[in-house]
Amino acid sequence: MAGQTKPSAIDDILAEHAGLEQQLSDPSLHNDPSAARRVGKRFAELAPIMATYTKLTAARDDLEAARELAADDSSFAAEVPDLEERVSELDKALTDLLAPRDPHDGDDVVLEVKSGEGGEESALFAGDLARMYTRYAERTGWRVEVLGATYSDLGGYKDVTLSIKSKTDVRDGVWSRFKFEGGVHRVQRVPVTESQGRVHTSAAGVFIYPEPDEVEEVQIDDTDLRIDVYRSSGKGGQGVNTTDSAVRITHLPRASW
């Protein structure tokens, strides 16, 4: 049988899950939508771990019971190998789930596609990439929104920015699927702009960022700002020494004074 999962790892998860469950049951949490979303997202991320742990615990109990009954009734002995295999599989699955992961795997993303070398054909290729990502996201059940786009003359994209969001909070979200798509993509094909049938190589860049969490409005007290004004010096026109040529604003919170 596979080695037992380290108690400390799963114990930490069990304690965190219980704490999150308690927070979600507190009505006051939902007065802060941002905090409620963070707690709900983490709770959803732990769901697969909790489900696997529950199955593993039940399988271990069944295996222990089958071994005890097999000592008195040989008919139960036939169940032991299957249960041992089941426990081994679940233990491995739980170990994999507890392995360190990219903290952004559950995040939504902002995806940019920019045309590169290849002129109009590159813009058409960028359009193909954007449509491919959009269709994949829609088939996965995610929401896609075009945040901005610059079109080429033939209907391609010089650049386009997409927001891709999962409809539910999950452990393996949009970022986990898209994070390796970033970089330069190239295609070799006969462009629609090519009249002599020659193969061209075109490139487009794909940039992907985890969507940042909502940030609460920041209040800055004017008294916490130091403003330094600089003016040009030396020979010049009438504006020398009278016109502000540079301004530097430094934030100095009173706590740091």
What do these coordinates show?
The protein has helices at residues 7-24, 33-70, 79-98, 119-140, 174-178; strands at 109-115, 143-151, 157-165, 183-189, 200-210, 225-231, 244-251. The model has no long low-confidence stretch (mean pLDDT 83). The chain is an alpha+beta fold and 257 residues long. The chain is built from 5 helices and 7 strands, in the order αααβαββαββββ. Strands 2-3-1-5-4 form a 5-stranded antiparallel β-sheet. Strands 6-7 form a two-stranded antiparallel sheet. It has 3 domains: 7-98, no CATH class; 109-210, 2-Layer Sandwich (Alpha-Beta Plaits), CATH 3.30.70; 222-256, no CATH class. The termini are far apart.
Could you name the key traits of this structure?
single chain; 257 residues; alpha+beta; Alpha-Beta Plaits; 3 domains; five-stranded antiparallel sheet; two-stranded antiparallel sheet; 7 strands; flat
Topology:
Layout lengths: L6 H18 L8 H38 L8 H20 L10 E7 L3 H22 L2 E9 L5 E9 L8 H5 L4 E7 L10 E11 L14 E7 L12 E8 L6
Helix pairs in contact: 1-2, 2-3
